[in-house]
């Protein structure tokens, strides 16, 4: 936080832990907000945390500083802040309401799996596309099955963190992890993009994992930014940089040693275009990025 004459001027926030792993080990975001009102909210929050209270004792002050939005409501202003811990998980339900209200595109990152509040979001039939980028697919049979079921729906596109373990294809080099992180090797960002290509996008970004503990037990912060197309463009570019990076690596890992999978070469006729028309994920993505929907 930047203070001038003891008055808050700006704040740096996001998902990045100030550690080697946070900076060099996995995906993260650092977000600078040059807004005195927002900075003041963070300063007030810092003063609440400075005495290091147990989370049951900090909840009333946190909820007074940033009340939980009313169910069914939209973001209160262009840029607002939501802190944790707070009583219950009503805030998660509000995030899910924002997500399911997307008109054409939803993009979310999940560092610790898909919370149950968001399963109905990805289950709801949708004319656009919902993207999810996960650090892992659950690591246990039940959440793995849930992720597999959701990603089979035609309006969902998922990618899961992975790496190139062996040189399966010509000229692809074996990769290795940084070994700087023991729990989250790939995706540590926690952000949601609602209609990021539209005229009134919503970006929700910060340190909270879209989970129960990050809502009712941990000290967390989230920015809610509405209507800033520049910010949405930056987040969307980073999201798809990561999504395409890991979608390829996940596909490669799943097909390791499969003799029926070979490198794809350019086709000499126009059959390459077939998957970009009709009721396919690629067709939906073509429509979104061509500007056919707002």
Could you please describe the fold and organization of this structure?
By secondary structure, the chain is α+β, with helices and mostly antiparallel strands. The protein has a single domain (2-258, 273-289), classed as Endonuclease, Chain A, CATH 3.30.870.10. 33% of the residues lie in helices and 18% in strands. A 7-stranded mixed beta sheet has the order 4-10-9-8-5-6-7, with helices on both faces. Strand 6, helix 6 and strand 7 (156-160) form a beta-alpha-beta unit. Helix 2 (36-49) packs antiparallel against helix 3 (55-65). The longest helix has 26 residues, at 229-254. The radius of gyration is 20 Å and the shape is globular. The two termini are 36 Å apart. The relative contact order is 0.16. The mean pLDDT is 91.
Briefly, what is this?
The chain is 33% helix and 18% strand. It is an alpha+beta fold and 294 residues long. The strands form 2 sheets. A 7-stranded mixed sheet has the order 4-10-9-8-5-6-7, with helices on both faces.
Name of the CATH homologous superfamily: Endonuclease Chain A
Q: Under the CATH scheme, which class? A: Alpha Beta
Helices, by number, come to 9
Order of strands, widest sheet: 4-10-9-8-5-6-7
- The CATH topology turns out to be Endonuclease, Chain A
The proportion of strand residues reads 15-25%
Helix % is 25-40%
Global geometry:
globular
Mean of the pLDDT scores? 91
């Amino acid at each position: 936080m930047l203070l001038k004459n003891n008055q808050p001027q700006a704040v740096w926030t996001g998902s990045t832990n100030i550690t080697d792993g946070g900076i060099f080990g996995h995906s993260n975001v650092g977000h600078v907000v040059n807004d005195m009102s927002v900075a003041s909210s963070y300063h007030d929050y810092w003063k609440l945390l400075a005495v290091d209270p147990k989370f049951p004792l900090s909840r009333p002050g946190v909820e007074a500083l940033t009340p939980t939005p009313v169910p069914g409501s939209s973001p209160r202003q262009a840029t607002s802040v939501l802190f944790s811990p707070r009583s219950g998980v009503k805030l998660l339900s509000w995030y899910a309401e924002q997500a399911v209200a997307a008109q054409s595109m939803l993009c979310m990152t999940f560092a610790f799996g898909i919370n149950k509040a968001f399963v109905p979001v990805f289950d709801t039939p949708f004319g656009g596309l919902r993207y999810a980028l996960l650090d892992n697919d659950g690591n246990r049979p039940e959440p793995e099955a849930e992720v597999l079921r959701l990603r089979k729906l035609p309006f969902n596109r998922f990618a899961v963190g992975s790496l190139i373990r062996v040189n399966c294809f010509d000229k692809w080099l074996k990769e290795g992890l940084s070994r700087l992180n023991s729990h989250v090797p790939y995706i540590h960002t926690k952000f949601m993009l609602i209609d990021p290509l539209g005229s009134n996008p919503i970006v929700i970004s910060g340190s909270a994992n879209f989970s129960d503990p990050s809502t009712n037990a941990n000290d967390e912060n989230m920015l809610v930014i509405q209507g800033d197309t520049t910010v949405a463009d930056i987040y969307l570019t980073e999201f798809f940089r990561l999504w395409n990076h890991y979608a390829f690596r996940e596909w490669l890992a799943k097909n390791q040693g499969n003799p029926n999978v070979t490198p794809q070469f350019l086709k000499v006729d126009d059959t390459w275009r077939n998957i970009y028309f009709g009721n396919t994920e690629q067709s939906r993505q073509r429509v979104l990025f061509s500007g056919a929907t707002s």
